[in-house]
Amino acid sequence: MQTFWVYPIYTSILGIILKAIVPRTAIKRFAIYSIILGGIGDFIILLILKYIFNIGLYVNYFPFGTSGFPFFPPLAWSIWFILYFYFLPNERFLKIIYIVIAAAYSAFFANVLLNLNIIKWNYERIFLPFGIYLVWFSIVTWIKIKMERAFSN
Fold first, then answer.
1. pLDDT at 92 over 90
2. How far apart are CA 65 and CA 81, in angstroms?
3. What does the pLDDT read at residue 120?
4. For the chain, what is the mean pLDDT?
5. Which helix (H) or strand (E) holds 8?
6. Predicted local distance difference test score (pLDDT) of residue 57
7. What is the CB neighbour count within 10 angstroms for residue 69?
8. Count: domains in the chain
């Protein structure tokens, strides 16, 4: 199997998990946050990492992308963040643990993708990805909480 098939396969698996676990009302509730903070966030982070810091990029996505940008990762991140927001605990201490575990999982999974030659890191493989995910997920969680509070009033 060619490596570019990992993109649609992983995204499809996430979609199936989403449909099996998350109620439709929750999917609708979290979709806008997930698209903006996950899918578009991934695109913006990729721009920053690729063109400003030259840290990393997606590779081997042909024929599922164009101009250096794959189609499936923003979609997969949008689905992933619906799951993330659905399981996000209310208690502050548990939120912190949840964010750290999610960042650790994402760094681990990024290394799997690196080993499969799906992404490329130009620097360190563990702490840098973990730090990027930790900052991203912390900011996303904070924004989502602030937005929900603003819209609930």
1. yes
2. 21
3. 84
4. 92
5. helix 6-21
6. 81
7. 16
8. 1
Q: Which tokens sit at 6?
A: 């990992």
Return left, alpha or beta for 68; rule: phi > 0 is left, psi -120 to 50 is alpha, else beta: left
CA–CA separation, 119 and 45 (whole Å): 14
Question: Is the whole-model pTM more than 0.85?
Answer: yes
Cα gap 61→8, rounded to integer Å: 10
Residue 56 phi, psi (nearest 5): -170, 170
Give the number of residues written for the chain.
Answer: 153
- Give the pair of three-digit tokens for residue 149: 């509070």
pLDDT tens readout for residues 6-62? 999 999 999 999 999 999 999 999 999 999 999 999 999 988 988 888 888 888 788
Backbone φ, ψ for residue 59 (5° rounding):
-135, 165
What's the rounded Cα separation, in Å, for the pair 36 and 20?
23
Per-residue pLDDT at 2 exceeds 90: no
Range of the structural domain that residue 114 is part of: 3-152
3-state secondary structure of 1: coil
> Looking up tokens 């810091």, which residue turns up?
53
